[in-house]
Structures are given as structure tokens and as C-alpha cells.
Design goal:
mainly alpha; 0% strand
Length: 253
């Protein structure tokens, strides 16, 4: 590769990193015209299209790049992301797998593959992938916690929720879900505190109110639960579990 071509590629990378996808594509066009089989230029042009959400074009350029250099892990990963956006699930899964074959420590590829498998409703496969990921990404921790809890691994789910509220103390959904896990362990007093943290951040969320009321019933604190369920059946009269808990509180009083 000539020095001019290398300089062009490096400049295009800097443009992409600064969010200038249009300028990157314009910079690469003369190089591609002169060297139509330049795999790096094809891959970067595909990435420029991806940055502009032109995913069909992005996939076309990246596919050409990979035909010339199939062992380029970064391009395989970018190609997988584009195929996922196009909902070409099988192709995307294969591209993520090829990325991880070339670079087994590619954490982001494993993380994104796990998310995609969850989108495909393959929860067991998604969890197996995400269990191998060390991350502080809130979205990933939230998904993994949900999958772990649904798989009967409540302690592992609780660890994820603990990490989330440490990283983001204002994440009311994590406080709510943390309370659900504590209820599962019959740690009702601790669950109540978790719901209180959630309600301090989202005071009108019906699900948190319901969970708090149900926990009060478990603690035999029916008089405190009653006004919560009176409020809930008034705001959502078609939700059966609110009526059920309302009835339990009434009967117990």
C-alpha cells in the first residue's frame, strides 16, 4: 500500500471517530476508484454508510471487504452489527461468531451477540453468552439480571442489580427489580426499602406501588397496604392482581 493510500485511510478513520461520516466517504471515494479492491477502504466506506444508517449499502461494502480479507476482526464485528440492524439474524450470528473466533477476547462482540440472541427469544443462549461478559454496561447488566432471575438464578440476578444501583443510584427500575428478588428470598423488610428507593424516584409507577403493597401484605401490615391498593384499583380497574391484593387486605382487616 502506498504512503498516500495509508494517509487517506488514517484520515478517514479520524473523520469517522469525530462523527464526520459524509466527509469520510468523500475522502475514501477517490482511493476506491483508484484501488477498487482495497479492503480497508471498502470496510471504512461501509462503516461510513453504517454511521448514516444506510445499512444495506454498509453491508454491501463490508461484504466486499471481507471477501478480500475475511480475517479482519473489526470488519467482521461491524458487519455483524449492520446485519443485526437489517434483522438478518442468522448472518449476523455467524458474523459475531467469526469475530469471536478471530478474537476470543472481543468483549463487545460477545455482549452484542448476547443481546441479539435475547432479541431472537433465545434466552438460554443469550444468558450463556452474557455470563461470559465482564461489564459495567447498565443495559447489559439489566438484561442479564432478568435472564438470570427467569432461569432460577436469583442470587446471580441480585448481584447484577446491586451493581446497577451502585453505578446508577437513580435507576428506579433497578431498585424495583432488586426488591422483587429480595421478595423471592422472603427478605421482605429489605424488599420494602428497595421499593421505597424506587418510589422516591418514580412515585407514580403502578408496578412499584403494587410490589410495595404486596410486600406489606407479606409482612401482615394490611392497614398500610390498603390505601395503596385502593389507589391502584381506582387508577387501573382492569388489573386483576390489584383487586386480588385489595381483597386480601380487606379480608385480613
Amino acid at each position: 500500500m502506498s504512503g498516500d493510500a495509508l494517509a487517506t485511510l488514517q484520515f478517514a478513520v479520524r473523520l469517522l471517530q469525530s462523527g464526520q461520516a459524509d466527509e469520510a466517504a468523500r475522502t475514501l471515494a477517490p482511493l476506491l476508484k483508484a484501488e477498487p479492491n482495497n479492503a480497508d477502504a471498502l470496510a471504512l466506506t461501509g462503516l461510513a454508510h453504517a454511521h448514516r444508517s444506510e445499512n444495506e449499502e454498509a453491508a454491501r461494502f463490508m461484504s466486499r471487504a471481507l471477501a478480500l480479507n475475511p480475517r479482519h476482526a473489526a470488519t467482521q464485528f461491524n458487519y455483524a452489527n449492520v446485519l443485526r440492524k437489517l434483522e438478518r439474524w442468522s448472518d449476523a450470528e455467524q458474523a459475531y461468531t467469526r469475530t469471536l473466533t478471530l478474537k476470543p477476547d472481543h468483549t463487545e462482540a460477545r455482549r452484542q451477540r448476547g443481546h441479539m440472541l435475547a432479541e431472537m427469544k433465545r434466552d438460554a443462549d443469550a444468558l450463556a453468552e452474557l455470563d461470559r461478559v465482564a461489564t459495567d454496561n447498565i443495559q447489559t447488566l439489566t438484561l442479564r439480571a432478568k435472564l438470570r432471575f427467569n432461569a432460577g438464578r436469583a442470587a446471580a440476578a441480585f448481584a447484577d442489580y446491586e451493581r446497577i444501583v451502585t453505578l446508577d443510584p437513580r435507576n428506579w427500575e433497578a431498585w424495583n427489580n432488586r426488591g422483587i428478588v429480595l421478595d423471592h428470598f422472603e427478605r421482605y423488610d429489605d424488599a420494602l426499602k428497595s421499593y421505597d428507593r424506587a418510589l422516591a424516584l418514580a412515585p407514580d409507577d403502578d408496578n412499584v406501588l403494587h410490589n410495595r403493597g404486596a410486600t406489606l401484605i407479606c409482612l401482615l401490615r394490611y392497614a398500610e397496604a390498603m390505601p395503596l391498593f385502593e389507589r391502584l384499583v381506582a387508577s387501573d380497574p382492569d388489573r386483576a392482581d390489584n383487586w386480588s391484593c385489595h381483597g386480601v387486605a380487606l379480608a385480613s382487616l
